[in-house]
Amino acid sequence: MLWAYIYCYQLTLDSHNRATRRTAAHYQESCVGANHKGSSLPLSTPVVVYCSKINKIVQCNDIAKTEGIEIGHGLAQAAALCPYVHVLPFNEENERHMLTQLAHRLYPLASDIVLDSHACAGGLAIRLDNLTHYYGGHEPLWKTLTQALSESDVRYHFGCAWTIEAAKVLALQKYNTYVCTRDDIKKALNACPLSLTALAPKVIESLARVGITSVQQLLDMPVQELGRRFDNNTIMYLTALRGETFPRVTLFRPLERFDNFLLLPFDVENIQHLTPFVTQQLEHLSHYLRARNLYTSNVAIYIQFREAPPMNIEIQSALPQSSVKSWLPLFTLKIENLVLPEPATAVELKCHQFEEIDTHNGDFFSDRFNDVAQKQLIGRLNAKLGDKSTFQPRAANSHQFEYMTVTEPNVPEYAYACDTAPTFTFDVPTPLTQPTQICFGPLRLNSEWWHDRPTKRDYFIAQTPQSVRLLVFKDEESRWWVQGLFC
Amino acid sequence: MNKPLSVLNNHPHIWRAREQKQNETKFSLGFPRLDKALNGGVASTGLVRIASLTGVGELSLFKDVICQHRTHKLVVFINPPGRLQSPWLENLGLKTQQVLVVKTHTQQESLWAAEQCLKSTACHCVVLWSNTISQKEARRLQVAATHNDALCLLYTPVHRPLSSSSKQQNRPLSSAQASSDDALPITLDLYLQGTPHALSVNIRKQRHGWPKDNIVISHKWTPDNNAIKWAMTHNTLSDQALHSVS
């Protein structure tokens, strides 16, 4: 077996850098940078990631390093060294999110991925030996993987060895060389200090007492010797490190739905300023859909805040689509009237329902484009005016003028012909106040017996002196009402 | 002196009313007198304004235009003055799948929706109810309609002098409005007036043609009692015979 361990040592920082660069580029493109630059950080700011649980700086960028800040410093020390340092909080949950996203990106390239996220940094282990067959050698395989990693813009150290445990030691050692022969791996492992292994500090101490300080000495010892001194877990780890046993691992399985989480590099107060971040997520979505030959007609965006409950924006499209170009206008229309209750800290894009691209229903008639255009139009109108603003009137199962037409889309089509139906009816009948002349009628309509208040109405079509034709009726108390218009 | 004038006369951008453009597609309205005054009917694209009271048969007048052309495309009703009834649409000859109703809250939204519909290329005809329209807005709709091969029917209320008491106060406003109304850059501007037995159509302005007033057409858009009346007047039987059962 051959495993590569990718040690991502600054995921939070990478994501922050990516988002900052992205916004800068976006605003340069759209030439409205001047008033937004204030909220976004320039790229030359020293940035550190601080973990409050252990009171240590866990990640810092190059500029912070030149200021003298190192990983492992406390917050006070960092602030003393560089008073204008920008501090990001470390969040394990977010870090795991980002690692999962990276795994999603790599999954199409490598099938066996193991997620390894622990307290302060995360890593991925990828099994290589079974893939070399498909890629035609070690070099093309590794080139493909590194290409994908550089596209996702993550800084990492890596190591390759016969088991995950051994590869991890090499990655922590920052070995960063691809080796695949047993001798090379052994040579590389021999140079590592014991402190990089996952052995408990107590075990390392007791080993040091008998004069074992490097991995080389440990590997040279016979197992029987070790078995007498250490517990089962340690022995299992050691045999794995030697490449003699292969512990069971849980392989990563990608989600069946799309879920992209993005931590914003700064608090966004204006909802319009979320557009560049959502564009980025929609790009991910379109890659995801393209790779799977899918479309979607439903996208949900969750905006998270520090205190307020998350805001959910559902975007429906009448036509299943996948491209950024078609989703972004819908998003911008949808958010036009929305206001954020408080500054947003993170955006999450979720997509649960997918539709297969059906290659059979495409025909070559002009109606095809018309159908697409109609659905796009309805999608646009609904996005701006609200979901209930467009409807198609349908005939309903009633002979009464007020119940003849329904606007809900999900009712069965009911063929109903009525010569005397008006063009428009009013929501409620109004008393007839004008002088009119009857030109059609009477037509007596009783309401259905199951209605609460049975009515009996004599309908007429009446004409005013201005020649406006009205649908009027006389109720049982001989009062006259106007119910509709004939246009 | 003569030469520059003739050069000017040959300029292709000068349009003369006497040279009727023949190649424009027109949709016939089905009323011979009106079609003749309109040089064959309503243009197939562009903005048409109809000023009338609601309920004088202003929609039924355009029955042939709305129902008989480009039937695979949508007919959109924006901001209608009531609940549109599907049996009436069936009677007119429109399938419900072909109809879309858009409800808006403000006039700006209506105009925006109309423009989107026209630009989408999915619509045959956009029927819009709006109280007023400015020159700029009319121009936008006109351009959107002509470029996308669609027709826009704009229904507006009648702007006419009010009662004599308020006439004096409103005169400057209404005259200013009238002048801006007249100058709308649209294909056709109609004013409909209902009389008890007929409909009078006034062409205020038409592209490539002259305005013409008071074209009276007999227009039936609702069922009437004529059949009963006819039966009553032609009845030769006595009352007794009518009620007898043999």
TrEMBL record, chain A:
Q: Name one Pfam family in it.
A: IMS
Q: What is the recorded name of this protein?
A: DNA repair nucleotidyltransferase
Q: Does the keyword DNA damage apply?
A: yes
Residue ranges of every copy of the UmuC domain listed in the record: 43-169
Q: Key word Plastid present in the record?
A: no
Keyword terms: DNA damage
Automatic annotation (TrEMBL), chain B:
InterPro entries named among the record's database cross-references: P-loop_NTPase (IPR027417)
Its domain of life reads Bacteria
The family database entries (SUPFAM superfamilies) matched by this protein are listed as: P-loop containing nucleoside triphosphate hydrolases
Name used for this protein in its record: Recombinase RecA
Annotated organism of origin = Alteromonas gracilis
Q: What is the lineage of its organism?
A: Bacteria, Pseudomonadati, Pseudomonadota, Gammaproteobacteria, Alteromonadales
